[in-house]
Amino acid sequence: MEREDSNMSFNGDLYPTAGADVVMTTKGDMVDYNTSRQRLAIGSANQILQVKSNLPSWETLSTAGSVLTTQGDVLYESASGLARLGFGTSGDVLTTKGTGANPVWETPAGGGIVEKLYDTTLGVSGSANSTQFEADFSSTPLTSTNYSHFEFWLTGNTTGGSCDVNFICDQSTANNYYYTAQQYNVSGSLTWFSASPDTTGIISDTTITDTAGDAFFCYGTAGFNPARTTDFNVFTWLYQYGNGYSQFTRLNCYTLLASASEISYMGIGCVGDGSLTGGSRFQINGFKMT
Q1: Which of 24, 27, 104, 246 has a 20 to 30 Å separation from 135 between CA atoms?
Q2: pLDDT for res 267
Q3: What whole-number distance in Å separates Cα of residue 61 and Cα of residue 48?
């Protein structure tokens, strides 16, 4: 029995009726099936094939590069997919609004914010028996409505001899300061205790800042008196590095405020032979109310 050779060929079309070569018309087309074979046209550049409504579909995926447009943009997931949050205003904070809400930029609330109110370094030494620092807030007084309390730092050296260093309230160097003070020596022993009215708010007396060249650091906190609205309460701690002495002082600036719960001036003065050297620094910070 002789075998006759035969030739076989295949044109890639498995469908004798409405075949691939009938359905597809353009390079890149594909065939899918709905109720019959149909053409799925080629998609756009960078699209991917996904299932949508139970049929294949070319879809564009959102990526960071396709959503973000400007330096400072933030990418987040919205209800419909990736979304862009444009950069906010300087000082704004990014705030979440909870479940089902998109993040936003918001101006921060005032609560707990520390504000620098005054920061000055003496360029030259001050004069004896004079005000060394003057923080004048008379144009915009500091009120108990806006500030819960204040804190200040005073650092520096003395020159010219011994002196009292005083806290000045509302531009008054001779007024009613009721104070209690405790002074400790280098060993930490209490050397004296005083409780009396005075005409100056002494935060360091001549037994501590007792000579020229005394380097010291003073921290203070101050606030309004809600019961006596023209009083201003101050607590200070001062340490003198040379002799190791320190002084704790509580000042009740009694009826010194010109307006109730409002201060227009804070300062530092020296009484005696000495004063503060150039390079001494006084800084006041205010803590904003909520």
Answers
A1: 246
A2: 96
A3: 8
Per-residue pLDDT, 265 = 95
Q: pLDDT, tens digit, for every residue of 156-215?
A: 999 999 999 999 999 776 668 888 889 999 998 998 888 888 888 999 999 899 999 999
- For the chain, the residue count is 290
CA angle, residues 280, 256, 152, in degrees to nearest 5: 30
> Are 287 and 114 contacting, i.e. CB atoms less than 8 angstroms apart?
yes
What is the distance between the alpha carbons of residues 165 and 240, in angstroms, rounded to a whole number? 12
Residue for token pair 């009613």: 176
Q: Furthest-apart CA pair in the chain: how many Å? A: 138
Q: Where exactly are the structural domains of the chain?
A: 20-59, 69-106, 114-288
Closest CA to 223 of 171, 148, 172, 285: 148
What is the spatial distance between Cα 221 and Cα 134, in angstroms, rounded to a whole number? 17
Share of the chain above pLDDT 70, in %: 89
Q: Would the pTM count as exceeding 0.90?
A: no
Of 154, 117, 102, 152, nearest to 132 (Cα)? 154
Q: What angle do CA 73, 78, 80 make, to 5 degrees?
A: 125
Chain Cα centroid distance, residue 24? 63
Torsion of CA 175, 166, 144, 146, to 10 degrees: 140
